[in-house]
Please model this.
Amino acid sequence: MTKKRKKVHKDIKLLCKEKKTMNLISPENESIKLLEDEKERLRKAIELKDQELKEQKDILLRKIAESENSKRILKKETDMLIENANVKFLKEILPVVDNFDRAIASMLINDNKEQIVQGIKLIDKQFHQVLEKMGITTYKSEGEKFDPSKHEAISVIAKQGTQDGVVLEEHQKGYIYSGKVLRPAKVIVNKIDSENKEEIND
Model:
């Protein structure tokens, strides 16, 4: 091979090498590389987000489990408190029941009505003492202004000389528990019509 041909051959190799290098850094190849880099970045971001979601899901499941356990514990404690309150009330009321039994037995063999009445009054007093221990009390209605939150009117009558809307008679006692009306009192209320009101005012 002559020197000239060798030189041409060498130049061709050099050109091919330069062309190959140019192809590697061509805009098309650079765009592909950028896309591949972006794809890899997104893949890693998705993996990271999946891991975060998994951790959040685990935390949420733990909180739900803790909440359910708390509900069960609270229900159990509430049921126990109610049961204890019921037991306490029953223990307080049983002596009253015993006294009623004794009073009934006494009535069968005793003709002394006054003694029987006194015995029943004592039992009634004992029973109301038990209610007071449990926080249940009665309230006065007769002579008081009618209050729909405390009274249930079963009848109305017109009584002259008495203020309109006043409770004239209590048919059934009302009870309060912890500051709230447990049962309203059943009462008869004074109701003066318009004509009678005008006569009174005159």
Observations:
- The chain is about 65% helix and 15% strand.
- The first helix runs from residue 3 to 24.
- Residues 72 and 78 are 10 Å apart (CA to CA).
